[in-house]
């Protein structure tokens, strides 16, 4: 894939790009297949012309975003054999990628700044940095030179490009175009520029999502005093009609989409969805933190999604949806692990690898990171204000992770500063959304580890600085863990719709209810404060227990992570919170 995306922000003037675009040889007259270059703003036109000179496509199609364009694009991709229609649904499609191009590639995702420390903290003792990858402008220039010149030309282009740019050549392709060896996802925050090569998959190539709305936007947000975060946004209304909005940060594959679209198990409660992945938040003139979802759709993990776990997602994906790497049924439908739908008699399944598959087979039928991509407006519970330009007022921020041991169902931070520390100390079992292997507990501060657009130490300072904003009404901060297990490995909490019980407690805390007790790690629900009516046996003692040996190890791990990885850039306030926690754990 060779896609160059540049949001229309502060476009540099012709000839001024540091990447030496102007030095590439000029090509034949540009062949504009549709649209009018002359109608584009000067900066955009300049960008298109320079990119075309560099990549040398056979033609240029200027997107107009119309339905007709969408239909024509789908038809062309179908003709090229890149997607196939799923006749069981309305306008739904299946793409099967190259098995080597199935997830975000964090190791090949870089941020380019003149100074390394603007992008990443320098770890102590020469340790390998885990908070993003920096590339120098010179190295980046070389990487661009090695990849882009002529990459859309004739046959060569076929091996390296995909998506909208691929269709420019109009030639049929029999395989998923990617170049895993040369994949590079580069961000140049100073230029607000993203350059992606070699992958057609998800976050590597949907450049408006992780690349722009998180990495570049987090840098913009720091410069301009707002927040760009890996958070869902939901509205929750209690039986008395009182509505609150919360934003929640979870690492990939912790059930963010399920929570964002939750059908509450508690009678009389209503959840409405504003967004399932990204929140842009700023304080308004009344000091309220307001959030918008900058996305237009959902790009959710398919396996585990079912009428039980997420009925609203299932309703959303019945039409106008592009599925990737799920399995296909012989009656033209989709299938995956945990879809919880018996196969009708006589219906067979083809796996994401194109092989016959039957229930009980060792290999999964769908790739664990297989996805659905659907318009948000199709979700039956979209919040009436989901597109409101002023955003929705956020009263609580929830952090969470997949923690099989030691971390209670819910706790509240003592205050903003403690909450920032809680975000910095987030950890979770690893996910299929990136290239990591195995179920290791990874540090994932603010669920942003793969998405920071600048030095994490400075990001922490930015969060801490919110406390100093005059008139800011800071949201309360909570931490949740739906995934704690007992000794036998069984989940201690049913999750999904029952998580409304935790949101209920959070809402009551926001109303000022005295329903929390202090523990060394934060405030947890008082005995009987969590509504467990009708739930059957829940072992709340285990669910909320704080084993001293676990927390001793946890604070050791947090200390070594923060002091090694953030090192000189760790704000003293965060270090002080860590020391305070260490003291409380010692006295446990
Ligand atoms: C995603 C992720 O949303 O990896 O795809 O976080
Ligand atoms: Mn995400």
What does this structure look like?
This protein has 588 residues and is of the alpha+beta class. Helices cover 26% and strands 19% of the residues. The protein contains 16 helices and 29 strands. A hairpin with a 7-residue loop joins strand 4 (83-85) and strand 5 (93-95). Mean pLDDT is 91; it is low at 1-27 and 157-174. Bound molecules: oxalic acid and manganese (II) ion (MN). The site of oxalic acid has 7 residues, from helix 7.
Instruction: Tally the helices.
Output: 16
Bound molecules: oxalic acid, manganese (II) ion
Uncertain spans: 1-27, 157-174
Total beta strand runs: 29
What are the key terms here?
binds manganese (II) ion, binds oxalic acid, alpha+beta, 588 residues, nine-stranded mixed sheet, single chain
Topology diagram in text:
Elements (H helix, E strand, L loop, with lengths): L1 E4 L26 E3 L7 H14 L4 E2 L5 H13 L3 E3 L7 E3 L13 E4 L3 H4 L14 E2 L1 H11 L6 H7 L2 H4 L17 E5 L4 E5 L4 H4 L2 H17 L2 E3 L1 E7 L5 E7 L6 H5 L9 E6 L3 E5 L5 E4 L4 E5 L9 H6 L5 E3 L2 E3 L4 E2 L13 E2 L5 E2 L13 E5 L16 E9 L9 E3 L3 H9 L2 E3 L11 E3 L12 H10 L10 E5 L19 H11 L5 E3 L4 E3 L14 H5 L3 H19 L5 H15 L2
Parallel strand pairs: 2-3, 5-17, 6-7, 6-8, 12-23, 23-27
Antiparallel strand pairs: 1-9, 4-5, 8-9, 10-14, 11-12, 11-13, 14-15, 15-23, 16-22, 17-22, 18-19, 18-20, 20-21, 24-27, 25-26, 28-29
Helix pairs in contact: 11-16, 15-16
The structure holds oxalic acid and manganese (II) ion (MN).
């Amino acid at each position: 894939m060779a896609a160059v995306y540049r949001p229309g922000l502060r476009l540099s003037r012709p000839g001024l790009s540091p990447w030496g675009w102007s030095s590439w040889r000029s090509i034949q007259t540009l062949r504009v297949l549709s649209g009018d270059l002359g109608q584009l703003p000067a900066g955009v036109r300049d960008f298109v012309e320079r990119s075309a000179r560099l990549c040398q496509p056979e033609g240029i199609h200027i997107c107009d975003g119309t339905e007709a364009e969408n239909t024509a694009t789908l038809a062309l991709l179908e003709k090229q054999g890149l997607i196939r229609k799923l006749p069981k649904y309305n306008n739904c499609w299946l793409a099967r990628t190259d098995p080597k191009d199935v997830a975000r590639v964090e190791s090949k995702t870089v941020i380019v700044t003149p100074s390394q420390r603007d992008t990443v903290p320098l770890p102590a003792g020469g340790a390998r940095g885990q908070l993003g990858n920096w590339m120098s402008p010179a190295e980046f220039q070389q990487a661009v030179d090695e990849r882009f010149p002529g990459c859309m030309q004739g046959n060569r282009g076929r091996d390296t490009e995909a998506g909208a740019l691929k269709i420019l050549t109009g030639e049929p392709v029999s395989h998923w175009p990617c170049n895993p060896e040369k994949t590079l996802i580069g961000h140049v925050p100073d230029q607000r520029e993203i350059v992606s090569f070699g992958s057609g998959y998800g976050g590597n190539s949907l450049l408006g999502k992780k690349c722009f709305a998180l990495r570049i936007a987090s840098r913009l947000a720091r410069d301009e005093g707002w927040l760009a975060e890996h958070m869902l946004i939901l509205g929750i209304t209690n039986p008395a009609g009182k509505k609150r909005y919360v934003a929640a940060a979870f690492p990939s594959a912790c059930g963010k989409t399920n929570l964002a679209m939750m059908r509450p198990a508690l009678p009389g409660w209503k959840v409405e969805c504003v967004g399932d992945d990204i929140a842009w938040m700023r304080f308004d003139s009344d000091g309220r933190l307001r959030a918008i979802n900058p996305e237009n759709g959902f790009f959710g993990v398919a396996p585990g999604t079912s009428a039980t776990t997420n009925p609203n997602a299932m309703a959303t994906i019945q039409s106008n949806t592009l599925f990737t790497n799920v399995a296909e049924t012989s009656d033209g439908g989709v299938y995956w692990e945990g879809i919880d739908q018996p196969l009708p008699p006589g219906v067979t399944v083809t796996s994401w690898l194109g092989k016959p598959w039957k229930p009980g087979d060792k290999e999964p039928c769908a790739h664990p990171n297989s996805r659905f991509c659907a318009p948000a407006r199709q979700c039956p519970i979209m919040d009436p204000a989901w597109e409101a330009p002023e955003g929705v007022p956020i009263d609580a921020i929830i952090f969470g992770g997949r923690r099989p041991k030691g971390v209670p169902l819910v706790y509240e931070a003592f205050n903003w500063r403690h909450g920032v520390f809680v975000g910095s100390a987030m950890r979770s079992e690893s996910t299929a959304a990136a290239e990591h292997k195995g179920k290791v507990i990874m540090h994932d501060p603010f669920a942003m580890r793969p998405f920071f657009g600048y030095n994490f130490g400075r990001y922490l300072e930015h969060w801490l600085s919110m406390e100093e904003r005059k008139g800011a009404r800071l949201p309360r901060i909570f931490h949740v863990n739906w995934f704690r297990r007992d000794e036998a490995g069984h989940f201690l909490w049913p999750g999904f719709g029952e998580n409304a019980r935790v949101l209920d407690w959070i809402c009551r805390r926001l109303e000022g209810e005295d329903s929390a007790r202090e523990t060394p790690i934060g405030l947890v629900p008082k005995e009987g404060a969590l509504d467990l009516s009708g739930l059957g046996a829940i072992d709340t003692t285990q669910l909320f227990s704080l084993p001293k040996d676990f927390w001793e190890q946890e604070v050791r791990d947090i200390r070594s992570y923060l002091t090694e990885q953030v090192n000189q850039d760790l704000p003293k306030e965060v270090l002080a919170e860590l020391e305070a926690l260490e003291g409380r754990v010692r006295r446990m």
